[in-house]
Design goal:
This protein is mostly helical. It has 1 helix and no strands. 0% of the residues are buried.
Amino acid sequence: MKDYREFENRVSKSLNLMEAKISYMNKGVKELSAAFHEFHEDISDYMSFTAEAYADHEKRLSNLENKIK
């Protein structure tokens, strides 16, 4: 019976360690997800701004080309 208890204790410690690591990993994944959503918002704003600036730039170039012709 002593061997069984030692084995049970060892398995229990191993299981607790795995649960702690999974909990830590879960927290990291949640933080990564939050960071990605924040980045997504920032990059979307930047892309919209860039698209508007590019369109404006294209229009000005087109107007200049028409004046040169």
